[in-house]
Amino acid sequence: MLSRCMALRLFGLALLTLGVAPGARADSVLDRYDAALTAYREGRYAEAVAAARAFTERDLEALRVHWFERTGDSAPRANGGDPRRLRLAAMLHLEAAFATYQERLNTHDAPAPAAADWLDDARLASRLRPSGAGATHLSIGLGLVALVESPRSPPESFRRRWYLAAAMHFHSHAQTFTAHGVLATALESFPDDGPLLLESGELAESEATAGASPTYTRMMEGLVRAQAARLAALAHAEKQLRLAVAVDDTLVEARVRLGRVLTEAGRPGEAARELEAALAAEPRPYLVYLAQLFLGDVHQRGGRLQEAVACYRAAIDAYPLGQAARTALAHALHRQGDHEAAFETVRASLALEFEGGRADPWWAYGLSQLRPFDVLLVSLREEARQ
Amino acid sequence: MKRAARGLALVILTASSPAAQQLPLFRARVDAVQVDVRVERRGRPVGGLTAANFELRDAGVVQTIEAVTLEDVPVHLLLVLDTSLSVAGNRLLMLKQATRAAIEALRPEDRVTLVTFSFELTRLVEASLDHAGAAAALTGLNAFGSTSLHDAIFNALVLRERVPGRALILVFSDSADTASWLRADTLLDDFRRTDAVLFGVTLRSGYIVGSRWDRIWAGVNRDDEARLKAWFRDEPQLFRRGLLSALAEETGGGLYQADANENLTKAFTAIVEEFKSRYLLTYTPEGVPPDGWHPLEVRLRNASGNVTARRGYQR
C-alpha cells in the first residue's frame, strides 16, 4: 500500500501532468492570461472566467509550465509569482474549474470508491481520475494555492478557505470524487482544521446516505459491495466528524451530523447523546430543526412514537417552513393511528409557500449547502483582489 | 387492503360516511377487506365476471367473496408528478399534456388530486370533481430543484383517506429520490397497510438527461433489472431506483416505462382506462390470524385470463 504522502503526491502529479506537451504559443497565451487576471482583479468575474475557459489544453499546459517547474518528484515551485498574483490566479482557475465541471455535472467517469478506499484520505485521493479542462484548471489552482501560504497558515486563512470552497462546490454539484481529492490534499496540510474535517465527514455521510450521491447510482456491481461501501463510508464520516468536534466544539453542525451518522450506523443511544448535546448548545434555528428531526427519527426507529412526535413538533417550532419535519410528523401520527391529525398535517404542509429563497434546511443538508458558500466565495474573491 | 380498525381506509368503510352510503355494493363492516383486481386476456380487460369466477386465498385460506364490482365505484385519481429540474423543458410540456389526458379519461363522478414535487411538495388540487379546473391548475407549473419522490407519495397516500372510492395513485418520475425525509423501506411498509393501487410511469431513457447516468440506465438489461429488484428488497435505501416497481408490485398496480416524452400521454390514459375496468373483490376474512402479514392469492374459476392483485396486506 502506498504511503499517505506518496499517494497524495500521486494525486497531485496526476493533476499536474494532465494535458499535452508545451505549446509554442506561450507569449500570446500569457497575454490573454494577463488580461483574464486583470479582469478578475477588477471584479469582472464572468468575463475573466470565460477567458480562462477559452484556453485549450495546449494553452493550459503552457500556463502550467509558466507557473511550475518540476525536478524529479520534488514539489512544484512557482516561477516569479508574488502572493497577490498567486491568489488571483488560484481563484481564477478555481472558478474556471467550477464552470467547466458544471457543464459535466454527473458525468464523471471515476469509479465509485471501494470499501477499502475509505480507510484513509490518501486512498480516496488516489482513486481520483481527473480528466478534461476542468481538472486541469483545478490542478493548476491546487498547485498555486499551495504556494500562497505555508501549512502553518492560521485558521480561516485564504488557503484553507480556498480548499473548503472547492470541496463544498464540488460536493454540492455531485462531483464527489473531485471533492474527496481536494479534501484529502487539504487535510494533509491542515489535519486539524475544523471546517475541513466537517466537510470531509459530511461528504462521507452523503456517500453513505444521500440519494444525491452518485455512488449508489452505480451499484450494478453487487449488493455486498454496496453494503460494505456504505458501512465504510459511515465509519469514515464518524471519524472525520468526531475529529471536527474535538478540534472545535463550536461546530455544532458536526455534532448534529455525527448524530445522524450514528443513527444510520445503528447506534441510537450514542446518536441521541450527540443530538441532545447539540441542542444543549442552543444553536441557530436551522440546526435545532435538524437536531430535533434526527432525534425524532431515533425515537421513531425505536418505536417511541410519542417522543418522536414531540421532537418533530419541536423541529417545526424552530423552523416553521420545514416540510420534511411535517412529513415526518404526519408519518409518525399516522403510525400512531391518528389519521385525522396526519391528514391535517399533510394539508398544512402542502400549503406552505417557499418564497424569498427560504427553504427547508433538510433539502440542503446532503449537498454541502447549509453553510453559506456564496459568502465564502465572495470573501475569497475580495481577498484575491487586494 | 383495508381494515377499518386501524387501516387507512376507515372512512371508506364507515357506514355513517355520506359517500359510503352511495356505494350499495360495499359491505360496511369493520373487518371487510377489498382487493382491487385486474383480469386481462391477450392484453385486454376481461369483463362479465362474477364472484363465482374468483377464488381468493387470504394467508392460504379460501375466503367467501361477498361482492364484485366493475366500473361501479368512483375512482379517486391522485397524480403525483415530478417537477424537478430534470423534467424542465419539453418533458414538462409533455407531462402536462399527459396529465390533462388522464384527467379527461375520468368519469364525472371520479375525483382528482394533483400533487407536484421537486424538493418542495405542492398540492395543486385536492379531491376535486372539477376536472376542467384541475387541468387548468397545471398552467404555470415550473420544473426546478431536486427530487422528494418518497415524501410526495406518502403525502398523496394520506390525502386519499378522506375520499371514498377506489384510490389510484399515479406517480410520474424520471429519476430516483434525492431529497426525501422518508426512506424507501418505510414507504413500502406504508403501502402494505393500505388498499391504494399505485402505478408508476418512468422514462426508459430517463434520469438525468444527457449524462453518463442516462447511458448507464439505457444499458441496463433484463438481468440487471431483475438484480436491481432483488437488491431493492434487501437494501431499499441503497437501491431506491427499484421503488416504483416494488410499490406497483406490492399494490397490484404496474410500472410503465415510456420510451419517449411523447408516449407519456399514452401511458397515463392507458393506466386510467385500465383502472376503470378492474374488479373490486370484497370479503370478510375468516380463519386467518388477526395481525401480521397476509399473503393473497387470487385465481379465476371457470374463466381464463391473467390476474393481477396486490401481494398481500399488513394488519
Descriptive notes:
The complex is a heterodimer of chains A (386) and B (315). Chain A is mainly alpha-helical and 386 residues long. Chain A has three domains: 10-191, no CATH class; 192-266; 284-370, Serine Threonine Protein Phosphatase 5, Tetratricopeptide repeat. Helix content of chain A is 68%, strand content 1%. Chain A has helices spanning 4-16, 26-41, 45-53, 57-67, 83-103, 121-126, 132-148, 158-172, 176-189, 194-209, 223-247, 252-264, 268-280, 285-301, 305-318, 323-336, 339-350, 361-365, 373-385; strands at residues 68-69, 77-78. In chain A, strands 1-2 form a two-stranded antiparallel ribbon. In chain A, helix 15 runs antiparallel to helix 16 (323-336). The longest helix of chain A is centred in the middle third of the chain and has 25 residues, at 223-247. Chain A is elongated. The two termini of chain A are 44 Å apart. By secondary structure, chain B is an alpha/beta fold. Chain B has two domains: 2-23 and 73-276, Rossmann fold (3-Layer(aba) Sandwich), CATH 3.40.50.410; 31-70 and 278-314, no CATH class. Helix content of chain B is 29%, strand content 27%. Chain B has helices spanning 10-13, 18-21, 90-104, 131-136, 149-159, 184-191, 212-218, 222-234, 243-251, 264-276; strands at 33-41, 44-45, 54-58, 61-63, 65-70, 75-82, 111-117, 121-128, 166-172, 197-203, 254-258, 279-283, 293-300, 306-308, 312-314. In chain B, strand 7 (111-117) and strand 8 (121-128) form a beta hairpin. In chain B, helix 3 packs parallel to helix 10 (264-276) and helix 5 (149-159) runs parallel beside helix 6 (184-191). Chain B is globular. The termini of chain B are close together. Chains A and B meet through helix 11, helix 16 and helix 17 of A and strand 8, helix 5, helix 7 and helix 8 of B.
